[in-house]
Every structure is written in C-alpha cells, then in structure tokens.
Amino acid sequence: MKTIDDFNFKDKKAIVRVDFNVPLNDQKEITDTARIDAAIPTIKKILNDGGSVILMSHLGRPKKNPDEKYSLKPVVLYLSLVLRIPICFAHDCMGVSAQMMSKNLMPGEVLLLENLRFYAEEEGKARLSETATEEEKALAKKEIKERQREFARQLANYADVYVNDAFGTAHRAHASTAIIADFFDAQHKMFGYVMANEASNLNKVLNHPTRPFLFIIGGAKVSDKIAALENMLNKVDAIIIGGGMQFTFIKAMGGKIGNSLCEEESLFVAREIIEKAKKASVQLHFASDAIIADKFDNNADRKESPSDDIPDDWLGMDIGLKAIKDFSEVIENAKTILWNGPMGVFEMSNFEKGTKSVAEAIVRATQKGAFSLIGGGDSVAAINKYNLKDQVSYVSTGGGAMIEFIEGKTLPGIAAIEKD
Ligand code: AMP
Questions:
Q1: pLDDT by residue (tens digit) across 25-47?
Q2: What's residue 182's pLDDT?
Q3: Which residues of the chain have pLDDT under 50?
Q4: Is the CB of 219 inside a 6 Å radius of any atom of ligand 1?
Q5: What is the pLDDT of residue 376?
Q6: Per annotation, catalytic residue among 12, 17, 35, 353
Q7: What pLDDT is attached to residue 264?
Q8: Is the pTM of this model over 0.70?
Q9: What is the pLDDT of residue 254?
Q10: Partners of 302 in the beta sheet?
Q11: Is 51 in the pocket of ligand 1 (CB under 6 A)?
Q12: Residue 369's pLDDT is what?
C-alpha cells in the first residue's frame, strides 16, 4: 500500500479526502470529534514535511447548494484549536474563490473546502424533480456522470498530490473518493494513516488470522449480512450468530420463534449457510436460550425461554444466560475475533446483558493475547457504551466500508489508488 510515509511533501500541495462527517447539535457544536481527531496525524505529517493541505469532506446528506445546516464551517474552529494554526475556509468547494485560495496556499497552511455534497456531482446522483419523465431521468443520469468527472478534475487541479484518508466512504465510487485519483499518476496518489490503518488491520484479520478465528455476527437483518457470512465461511473456524438475525436461522432449523424477528424470504439462504458451514467444517454457534418479552419495549414483561421454543406472541430480545456462558467460552478460546452486530436490543437496558457480556468476553480474550477487531455501526456503539474501546485490539471507523470489506468486495476508494 502506498502511504504518505513513502512521500516527502516539501513544497507540495496535497488534497486530502477526510471523513469530517461529524455529528452536530442544534447550536452547530460538534458532539463527537473522533473523526476529525483521527485525521490529525495525516495532516501533521504533510505540514511537518513542509507541504500544504487542502481538506475536503462531505457532511450529512444536503439536497441543495448551499445548505447551511450541513456546512463544514463548525469544523474550522475545532481544527484550528487542535492544529494551533489558523484554518482557511472556502465557502464553496468549486469556483474562482476556491481556485485562488488553493493556488495561494503556502507551505504549513491548511485550507478546508465547504461540503462536497452541496454539489450533486460529488455522488454522481442526479437531483431529479418528481415530475421528470423516464426520458428526462435517463438523460439527467448520463449528464451527471459527465459533470462528476469534470468536478473531480477541478478538485484535482487544486493540488499536486491526492491523499485518501476517508475509510468511512471508501466503499463509494464518488468524485472525491475514487474518480479524482484518475487525475494523478501512481507516484502522486496515496493513502493517509486512517486508511492504511483500517486496511492493514482488516487485512491482518481476514487474510492472516491466528487460529482459531471466530466471527461474531448479530444485529437485526439477515439479508444485510448474508454476503459477509458467505465470505467469512471460507475464512473462519467458527461463527457465533446472535441478535435478531439468529431467529431466521432457528426457524430454518425447525424451531418455534413466536413473534421474534424473522425474514421469511431468507429462510432458504439460512439453510444453505448452515449446509455450507457443515461442508467447510465451520462451527456455527446459536444461542440455546433467549430473554423473551411480550412486546418490543424495555418495560415489557420478560422471561427466559429456550430460543427454539418461544411461545406465540412473545419475542426474543436478547441471548439468555446459558448462551452467554457458552459464547464466552468460545470467545475466550479464540485467537482472532471479528465482531459485527449486537446480540440483542442493547439500546434497552433490560436487554443489553448479552451484548455487554460478549463485549466483556472479547476483552478477556484480548487480554489473553487474541487479536480482536470490532466494526460496524452498532457493535462500535456498544463497545463505546460499555467504555471498552481501549481494551480491544482495533475498532474500525467505517460501518458500510467495513462490511463491504468483510464481504470480500474491492472498495472503490482503495482500488482507485492502487490502479496505475
Ligand atoms: P444491524 O444494523 O442489522 O446490525 O442491527 C442492529 C440493531 O439490531 C440494533 O438496533 C438492535 O437493537 C437490533 N437487534 C438486535 N437483536 C435484536 C432482536 N432480538 N430483536 C430485534 N432487534 C434486535
């Protein structure tokens, strides 16, 4: 992987795609600065070499240009406090002003461009009126792709070097994450530290695991996780399946699941996965018992039940005590652990025990020398909720990108840099 460590930025301008898609409150204050903090080492390396930095990012899902609610302006103050230098801000990422600001940028200076997604060209999705005819839609789609290329070319013109450090959007083939790379030769496009770190940790887990290698998967929807399960079947020694998605499997094996989550259309695929696991000698672990509730509510009546014999009108909300014990044992014997998706409705205090216990078992396994990687929105939320982030080996910052990586897909943001 070509990273910024392989390049001297002296007197060079680098345009860096960062992930500054940070949460803001009503007062436009940043409520979690983690994504900005993650980009700081990359920015500092370029500045310390004697280069200048042009930062570009998206924030939220704006539908027009400009859209004040989604302005990146609130980032300026925080960034200048952390870097201890004034930050220039281009109120429009396109146009003469941004061109001049990037042209005049001196070594040691930083310019932040306004939200790229103010322009539909960034994502390459046409903003169509509801009354557009099919013909108009087809034409608009073709046109936006052409304009997207031009948009990427203009961004590329601001700088000598392109750095991608936004793992969170690496699964998108957008102007700033992939297409822009076409305008730089192989020596002048590279990965920042966030990207390099994510890719090397995921690569280590997926392609060079110490065995036994355990995949823990949970969450709500089976259909969202099928591709990941199929790919992981070829790589792991064992899989723990928990969360709402386990009930489709339990039903597929003939269990009675009451009102628990179930995707009827995925029953066939669930059976197939069970068969494939058998053939590949991958052990599948399901929860033997569940905490069930009479409604989807933290204050619902609740009781324990075998997870394949849940009474009608009751639903499985968390894994049970026996399952916690069984899963903990499997986890503590693993040497490589990849966890995606909670074991139950962990947002509700009465149904969080399974998820919390699994997180704690992963911490114990890590203390015993296992390499543990946690990724995907809700498992990261869980590990943060229980303050265990620093006690696992690695927490991935990219939800969708991480899932696509474990599905075995090539991420456009990575491929764009690696191709000549
Ligand atoms: P996903 O985005 O597919 O990883 O799903 C995460 C969501 O799954 C979380 O919001 C959990 O509350 C939910 N979840 C986990 N277990 C269950 C369950 N047994 N029944 C319903 N929802 C669940």
A1: 999 999 989 899 999 999 999 99
A2: 97
A3: none
A4: yes
A5: 80
A6: 35
A7: 95
A8: yes
A9: 97
A10: 293
A11: no
A12: 98
Upstream peptide bond of 74 is cis (omega within 30 degrees of 0): no
Q: Atom 12, ligand 1: which residue's CA is nearest?
A: 345
Ligand 1 and 341: CB distance under 6 A: yes
The domain segmentation of the chain, as residue ranges, is 4-197+414-418, 209-386
Separation between Cα atoms, residue 220 and residue 385, nearest integer Å = 19
4-197+414-418 and 209-386 agree in CATH topology: yes
Distance from the CA of 140 to the center of ligand 1, in angstroms? 38
pLDDT for 414 equals 95
Query: Which residue puts its alpha carbon closest to atom 17 of ligand 1?
Result: 244
Catalytic residue status for 377:
yes
CA 313, 319, 322 angle in degrees (round to 5)? 115
Residue tagged 């690696």 (tokens)? 418
User: Which amino acid would we find at residue 372?
Assistant: S
168 lines ligand 1 (CB under 6 A): no
Q: Which CATH number is associated with domain 4-197+414-418?
A: 3.40.50.1260
Ligand 1 pocket member 73 (CB < 6 A): no
**Options 377, 385, 408, 409, the catalytic residue:** 377
Number of residues in the chain: 420
Domain range 209-386, CATH class? alpha beta
CA–CA separation, 159 vs 152, rounded Å?
12
95 CB contacts (<8 Å, ≥6 apart)? none
Percent pLDDT > 90 in the chain is 90
How far does residue 263's CA lie from ligand 1's centre (Å)? 13
In a mutational test of the pocket of ligand 1, which residue from 378, 379, 385, 402 has the highest number of ligand atoms less than 8 Å from its CB?
A: 378
